[in-house]
Structure formats: C-alpha cells, structure tokens
Write a structure and sequence with these properties.
The chain has about 350 residues and is of the alpha+beta class. It has helices at about 5-15, 55-60, 70-75, 110-120, 175-190, 255-265, 290-305, 310-320, 330-340, and strands at about 20, 25-30, 35-40, 50, 75-80, 80-85, 100-105, 105-110, 125-130, 140-150, 155-160, 235, 245-250, 255. The protein contains nine helices and 14 strands.
Length: about 350
Amino acid sequence: MTSQDALKRSEKSQNLKVFHLEDSPWFYVESDEGKICYKVCYESETEYLCNCADFARGYKNDNTFKCKHIMAVMNSIVDGDSENVRYLERYRPKLDEKFIMKIDDKDFVLYAGLLDVAHQKNLSSVDVELIQTPSEENKFTAICKATVKTVDGKTFTDIGDANPANCNYKIVKHIIRLSATRAKARAFRDMDNIGMTALEELGDLSEVIGADENKKAPQAPKNNVRKFQKQVKPVIKSDNGEGQKVEAAGNHQTVNQAEANEAKPEKAPAKTNKGNGNGNGKAKSVPLMSDAQKAALYNLSRRRGFSIDDIETRAQEKYGVPVEELSSENAGEFIRYLQQAS
C-alpha cells in the first residue's frame, strides 16, 4: 500500500460512524452510504481484521494493509486504549451561513463558500482552461472551462463566460479572471450539490459590491425619478422710466431686465426690446450633448436594465424634451443620475 493510497483511506475513514461492542475487541463500522455495517476485530496495531472485500484483497499482498474501516476504528480509540472508544458521528460537509447573501428575497452563495465546502469534500485539484480569448469579433467574450477533482477520483466540469455586457464595469479589464471564477463556481456547485446561484455569476454587482454579507442589498424604490422644481415665471412691473424691474413670484426678489432675460428657459426665444433703442436681443445658443455623452448614456442605461422607452420617459419628466434634444449640461446630469439609479 503506497503512502498516497493510505492517505486516501485515512481521509475516507474520517466520515465513517463507529460502534463498539462492550468488553470485546469487535466493532461495527458504517459504510460510506450508511446502508450496512462492516465487522472489524481490532486487538492492536498489528492484530486486526475486517470482513470487507477491500481488506481481503489488500491483506493477501501486504500483511500491514489496513482498510478504511480499520482506520476508522483506530481513529476512534482514545490514547491507545481499546476499552475507551469515541463513538464517531458521521461527518457531513456543510455550507456556513456566513457565505450566503440574500438579495431581493433570493439566496446567493459566495464563491468562498463553495470553495470551503469543496475542501470539506476532499478537493484534490482544480484545473482551468481558456477556450475562447476575448476579441472584437466575439464581442470581447472570454470562456473558460474548469475541472475539479476529489481525492476519491470524482470529476466535475463546467464552463463560465464573461463579457462587458454581463459584468460590472469596474471589472471589465479582468474579463478572463471573472470567466475562470464563474467556471470554477459552477463546477464547485455540482461537486458540493448546492443549487443556489453563485454571487459571482450575476451580471452587475453595483448594488452589492462592498456590502455586508449578512445584510440585505438595498432595493430601489418603485419610482426613483427626481422631480425638478419648476421655474417661476417673473412678473414684470413698471418703474419710473429708468429701466424695468421685475419681482419673481414667491421669493420677492427685485432684479433688472437683463437678469429677467437670463432667468427665462434656455430654449425660449429672446423677446424684442423696442423701447431702449439698443436693437433686438438674442438668446444664447445652448450646446446639445456630444456623441460621447450620448453613447455613455445609452450604454449606462443598458447596464442598468432601462429600455429606450424608460429613458425617453425619464428625460421628458426631468427636462421636458426628448433624449436627442438634451443639452450638454443636462446630459451630464442625467448620466450621473443613471449611475446612482439601481
């Protein structure tokens, strides 16, 4: 029996339940499946036997051979005294609750939790293979294949993909690593028999990155459109001929005619002033949003899950104009609003 085989049997023996017949060297050891018990006689480290087929085969070629049932008995004996035996309970791998995060009343498991359970189940190796390199032709999609193995030879394989459309913008530069993590998480889920989706498989983690694992992620209100205060239309009052004065309704502020013109909406045409002899006044032209702002706005809305109709509705409610007619200043403000929206 090689040292590696002995190590495998020793690890398997940790999961077996042992019963001792009082005042005798006989023990019963539960099988891996828990359906039957094997009978073991253990007198000392050199005198022992088991009625399992594994012991019968191994002992013929090596008189020091110990099956996992004999090893389980040896692990249960305290301080070498076979009369003082610990009744070993069957060990069952368990996912710690600290690795579970609840989002919108649904449970997600962290990758760290999957790895922890995999080690409890005697994880032997993890191999990851990059099967598609991100490029412009495949929309920068990386695909990795993960293969995990246990000490007893069981193998589990799965794949994971990642691209700028299904991950958070903060980790776009790490597409390959995210793809590998997702592949390993899915393989571990099969190995660990865990049905919960891994948190790392989610597309956008903006609302949960850095959040406390035991706290529920914040939920967005049903209507998070910020209302802008309507502009107050100034009331123009006549004066003594030295110039018109205006008083804004509600705030009782007196300003001159030039200030009143600036207080008017930017898209409203300037009115002609015929009484001052200075000619017609013209409103300043307002620059529309740039192509870069437009691209950023639509890309951000897509990542946030807003449709084109949603964006149009919000633009109308906020600024009273379609998206295409937003000014550069309003577009910048709208982009910042979408970044904060859930």
